[in-house]
Amino acid sequence: MTPEDTVSGWSVGLVLFGICLTLPTLYTGAITAEQLGFVDAAKAIALASAILALISIPAAIVGTQTRLSSYLIIEFVFGNKGAVYVNTLLALALLGWFAVTAGFFGQTLAIALEEMWELSPPTWSLTLISSALILITTLFGFKAIDRLALLAVPLLICFLAYVSKLAMTDVSWPALLSIRGANPDYFYTAVSTVVGSLIVGVVLMPDLSRYARTTGDCLFASLLGNGLGNFFSMLMGVLPAMITGLLDPMAYMIALGLTGSAFIILVFATWTTNSVNLYSTTLAVAVVRTKTPEWQLMLASGVIGTGLAMFGITEHFIEFLEWLGVIVPPVAGIYLVDYFLLGQRRFSTELRASLPNYDRAAMAAWVIGTMVSAIVFVTELSLSNVPSLDALVVTAPIYLFCRKRWPSVLNRSLSAL
pTM for the full model? Predict the structure, then answer.
């Protein structure tokens, strides 16, 4: 990669900001507000956004300093064949995210058609049709969709800000702040779900940050995107949901008299966003299925994801986010410890050719760390009350112990030069 290929932290941060602006994000904010009320919801979202930003900073630095994708970094850490298992997990997580977005998209279309034209087709049929169209446009015109996604970001930011301003027209801030949620004990669950909503993107942060010019750009991009971007997106789902008492973004926008504009903008934004989700899923699967043509992988991913959406994955949305926050962070914990604490910072074509099939220490730490994190989550024996942080804290010492037990067969430290 040449210096001409790199971009500013502002550019990377805006891309990350756009990733936060999705239907599932608005739903998460609305559900959090329903359970906690405005003040505690804002606190939970702020804490989760800070956690995401802080975790993404070192992950971003790894990408900037190595100029490698997350999938290649994982291969160096886990071994040629070991990386297949890790990347399969990440591909499944991305596939689940495509399915969740497709499910919410079908629900949004059902509400809009009922309101605008008094049509009531089954939600599953709308999910099927919309996902099929997204699949077709992604297969044959992803570059155009990707450019449209950049246009959708500022449009959606302005529109969501307007929706929140409109919702506040007849409501005073003291009245809003006085609203209490249905379940004050939901606070740490809310933090966990908000973290889970972006944790896969944080683990895959090197995919974007490798284009950042400097370490300072990594810091700025992480704070702007995963910090401020996530906080803004969630909060834009909190305000109108609390005031109208409706969780679905299309429903509360209709209640505010924005039926036509909401329909156009939400369809446009979700279409482009889920097209990018599908493409990201395809790239992740392609790392595992290297000999299968990309279009076949995209077709299979689209069909499976649509099937999951039609069979009601959105009904398990909160559980999905919570489990993402448990099983994905150990991957980041291992490659961050490997890079920053163990100093394994050499990544070259020559070294890649000498990589073992499996790095026993990394694989053992991943399996044990994930199992321990899952047990801690299920039994509620939390160290920090935030499962994602628990997973990182638990996995790091496990990996250090495993590395001492099984020293690396390939020393990638700079001192070995």
Answer: 0.89
